[in-house]
Amino acid sequence: MTTYDIICVGAGPTGLACAMDAKRAGMSALVIDKGCLCNSIYNYPVHMVFFTTPELLEIGNLPMVCGGDKPTRLEALKYYRKGAEHYGLELRLFFGGHLFGQVCHGVRIHSRLLGGRFGRFLFHFESLGDIFLVAVGQCFLCL
User: Fold this and answer.
1) Among 5, 23, 44, 98, which residue carries the largest CB count within 10 Å?
2) Higher pLDDT, 105 or 51
3) Is the pLDDT reported for residue 33 higher than 80?
């Protein structure tokens, strides 16, 4: 059975930032996602340019450098991938829907894929614990 100090459900910028902060604090972190790293950004239009400046997209105290005034989709994807590599984050991407045996401070986590168009997950927590972060756009929780 593997134990983590923090489990982040969602490998987008918020989940990655939380896992990076946990690693900087000396904690063990696991990041899981049903899709690829930054799946929502990956599905943006290919030539999309962000409305915001790079400084507002930065995470983990890592500077975001881009070719123009505003970052592109591709620059953001590269930035977040390199950030995850820099911090050595443990990622479980294209997560198939089962977290059997995963424990976060005494919380045994069970999940299953509900299916459907958006691939929604149902999570069930056996007991309360210290940190379990859900950083996703759509999630159903059963406590």
Assistant:
1) 23
2) 51
3) yes
Here the CATH number for the domain that contains residue 109 is: 3.50.50.60
C-alpha separations of 120 from 19, 95, 133 in Å: 22, 12, 16
- Write down the pTM of the prediction: 0.76
Closest to 34 in 3D by CA, of 108, 132, 115? 115
Range of the domain at 110: 2-142
Provide the pairing of β-strand 2-4 with 102-104: parallel
Domain tally for the chain? 1
For 91-121, write each residue's pLDDT tens digit: 988 876 555 455 555 555 555 555 544 454 4
